Amino acid sequence: MSPLIRIIIILLIGAGAGILTGIMGASGVMVVVPMLTLVLSFPVHKAIGTSLLINILAAVVTSIIYYRHRHLYIKPALWIALGSIIGAQAGSKFADMIPPVGMSNLFGLMLIPMGILLWVRGIRRTAGGLKANNGKEGLPAQTLKQKLAALGLGVLVGIMCGLFGAGGGVMILMILIFVLRYPLHLAIGTSSLIMMITATSGAIGYAIHGNIDVPTALIASISTVLAASLGAIIANRVSEKTLGRIIGAILAFLGIVMIATQHLAS
């Protein structure tokens, strides 16, 4: 493969990851890891570490755009971030102990029910249906029970981030919607910011083990940042119902594709 073709492929991979991050505040691991491993023959652990570095830059851009649309509320979600930082270090430490095939299949199997769940239940919640203690519309209240649940689930999210390189974005999104009861747009924007924190923690763990290809990540980040900006702008212009259906369909589809491609490769 010529260097030019390789660069083009990396840019296309980055663009796909950026679209996913911008639209649903989730990691582009579903695109980055399979493509790096199947097309560019990356070892799966190095592909995961590289995807985490790409996620950091994509999440920064996405968070800024959602913040400008007033779709970011971090205070209650800090409990998830705290737990995820701890979990991400643990996950990255034990990632080498899990066979690559098992990692890909496990993540793919998780995506399918998540997509169906968001399609069925996520679209029923609309922005403005929740109010914070200060009476501001669209901001969810926070209880002690929710904080403790978010902390514990954040640890699990961090472990998944370290194991799968996902930045925890999908799981964070689910927790924000179904545990902390965020409206969808607000959940996506906040998820992006938390994902940046979690991905940073996970990337450090992978970097310590030498499992990040920095040049590839930097090349991919060029198209990732541009695509994430476009995806975030589109997501902020559609309704909660439409966005919920889009995200649910994407998650279920990507879960099926990940499992299928892994079996084809083997």
Description of the structure:
With 266 residues, the protein is mostly helical. It has one domain (3-265). It is 75% helix and 0% strand. It contains ten helices and no strands. The protein has helices spanning 3-24, 29-38, 44-68, 78-94, 100-121, 144-164, 169-178, 184-208, 214-235, 240-265. Helix 2 runs antiparallel to helix 3 and helix 3 (44-68) runs antiparallel to helix 8. The radius of gyration is 17 Å and the shape is globular. The two termini are 22 Å apart.
Please summarize what this structure is.
The protein has 266 residues and is mainly alpha-helical.
The number of distinct β-strands equals: 0
Biggest β-sheet, characterized? none
The structural class is mainly alpha
What is the string of helix and strand elements? HHHHHHHHHH
Q: Choose one word for the global shape.
A: globular
Helical content stands at over 70%
The number of domains is 1
Layout: helices, strands, pairs:
Blueprint: H1 3-24, H2 29-38, H3 44-68, H4 78-94, H5 100-121, H6 144-164, H7 169-178, H8 184-208, H9 214-235, H10 240-265
Helix pairs in contact: 1-2, 1-3, 1-9, 2-3, 2-10, 3-8, 3-9, 4-6, 4-8, 5-10, 6-7, 7-8
Features:
single chain; globular; 75% helix; 266 residues; mainly alpha
